[in-house]
Amino acid sequence: MPTWGVAAFLLLPWLNPYTAGPTPNVWPLLLSTLCAVFLWTFRNRLNARLVTAGWLIAAAISALIGLVQYFGLASALSPLISQTEAGEAFANLRQRNQFATLTSIGLLVLIGWLAQRDKPGGPQPAQQWLMPWWAWLLALLLALGNAVSSSRTGLLQWLLIAALTAWWALPDRWWRLPVFAVLALLAYGVAVLMLPWLLELATGLHSDGLFGRLVKSPGCSSRKILWSNVLTLIAQKPWLGWGWGELDYAHFITLYPGPRFCEILDNAHNLPLHLAVELGVPAAVAICGALGWLVWRAQPWRERNPVRQTAWGVLAVIGLHSLLEYPLWYGPFQIAAGLSAWLLLSGGRENQPLPDADVDGLNEKFKQKKPFAQYLRALAAITMIVMLACVAISYHRVSQIYLLPDKRSAAYREDTLDKVRGSRLFRNQARFAELSMTPLTPANAAAVYGLAKDMLHYSPEPRVIEKVIESAVMLGRDDEALQYLARYRAAFPQDHARWASKNAGR
Hints:
Its main location: membrane. By secondary structure, this protein is mostly helical.
């Protein structure tokens, strides 16, 4: 495969604009997995320069997309870019913090490339303060991208990058790299101040931007309340946790002694806490302890190789993001973390292909039997692609029930529910649709009650809770109905009030 083809697989996960319900992350995750398969298959074409260039190009293009979105011009480029309201920007990543993390990765790559120029044989002392024009241009573009994201996580990441750059560069008296990082940070600060004014000048729309988000009280959706609730859940089941994927149900079913996080909670927005609440404290300590031990053994604070510094920096900003959200649930960041690990394994040699893993000498045996190794690699790639195609077809089938009849594929315009009900891979999505479409009657009350209780573990939202309560009452299970009613009132007070008012006249 030519180099441009490999580069395309590096860029696509970041720039893909397409997604579709009922689970919006499925299509982006499938595409990212497909790209990962091709990158693994053609890994002999990868090297540090190509990987980091892919990150920087993706960050620069995303920054341009973010500016287009921020100034209300996204509709002109539909469907190539995700649609937003003016004053909002997240590129094609669909979340402001993910967009900000990508700009942070781009800045790390840019600083790493400049560090390469300071290697022996680089600029002479008289030139050491000069920077290439493209470096300033890219830094400004990335600063603008991070600023339009209005991400508080992005602010923390750029402060972290400035600190890491100073830590790695100053012992070798590389003054210009920390100065460059600080100037990029200052450009970001100026952009944060100026962009809301420019937005109002251009569109008449007022936006508080990052400063507004810093001073605005988040109310019941604050991280403080969220983490307090998660700690309560951990205390209830500390050893084995609530089970993987059960946090949203645990949050709904629990009545807290204090303030309650007022949204459906399917992630703890902190990786160690999420592992603890779903897998248990021992598993969380073991996983985080193992990662901490690996970092301690590698001693990144002593790193002097620019390529390896970039890789550690990428892992650091993803790690910081993981303490506030869950980027590792998304394909682009999974690939970035994996490629960073490969860059560290490569020894930091810029143009050397990334190494194959050597497990018990198997890699050496494959080298001795190269044709067999190539066939085996091709077979594994084909198998993965076929599996991904099967998953995509299954998701496409189930998604038809969520579309208007005239928008569905011809084969699914009639008896759609019967055709998708037997889906195995996306069974919960199909059952959720079945619950939503099934009117409650005395004849089916028992079946609806069982289905609705199961769906509380998939999506404990008002329409599901109402079906649980109404079917329980119809079956004479008043105690259970009261139990769920109390939790409905606590979790969704406005929806509960609307529903209670509607039923008061019956």
